[in-house]
């Protein structure tokens, strides 16, 4: 996969070690094709870890991608070196005049915080509203999915009594939807959230296509009819050890977390975890890039228009 990112980005060495095709800018220019412009708004505290996870999933496609990283504001980070942010991340003001083929908004550890109490809530709304006129398809992940539903449908924040943590079985609900092409009838995906995504609530209060659900975790995947907004309530990008690291962190903070479900062998945290969701995670991102972005986006991004988009696959 020709994914084009800066040579100095920490993810570059990681992905090359995994035999993922990371393309230099000079090599990309010789191909004579227009790469898809993908913007990642990274809201997670550990930005280097998160950007690597998403870049890994974006690599599973024959399309050439030009990736840019966006930060929500210029506040100092406790978990990411300022030099890294200044070198590889852009401020919104520097890109707001441009159009992009795709936008990914990551999750954030804000499950118990009301939207209005999030320090950057107003700025996030500005970016999400900007995307309506400047982005072909936006992928909202976990907490961002809840934020997107608030913006687009004015849905209230619904919170579970206990944190949902583990790897859950899901069933597809829309067999022939392009985002689900190649999916097994049932598949595994990790969740780590307090947000409540009830299938009944979303069906009653939105016009979304509900694409995949879990008897325990609720809606996992949903999309607008025109595929310009796609909501993923779990974390297909997670590495094998991410849920484990969160569990150990919560233990260290005295939170007495539940053991992540269906994650450790024999549900024993002394045993190593196993990643059982990789194949469907890669397939989900490949389908989003193909059917929601590549087949929908105008060749010339300067001529971005609502008329480019259809509600049929």
From TrEMBL:
Catalyzed reaction equations? L-homoserine + succinyl-CoA = O-succinyl-L-homoserine + CoA
Can you provide one Gene Ontology molecular function annotated for this UniProt record? homoserine O-succinyltransferase activity
Q: Where is this site: Important for acyl-CoA specificity?
A: 111
- The UniProt annotation places substrate binding at 163, 192, 249
- EC id: 2.3.1.46
Compartments it resides in: Cytoplasm
What protein am I looking at? Homoserine O-succinyltransferase
Q: Where is this site: Important for substrate specificity?
A: 192
Keywords, alphabetical: Acyltransferase, Amino-acid biosynthesis, Cytoplasm, Methionine biosynthesis, Transferase
Which function does this protein serve? Transfers a succinyl group from succinyl-CoA to L-homoserine, forming succinyl-L-homoserine.
Active site location: 142, 235, 237
The family annotation for this protein states: Belongs to the MetA family.
What NCBIfam families does the record point to?
Answer: metA
- Its chief place of residence is cytoplasm
Origin, by domain of life? Bacteria
Pathway given in the UniProt record: Amino-acid biosynthesis; L-methionine biosynthesis via de novo pathway; O-succinyl-L-homoserine from L-homoserine: step 1/1
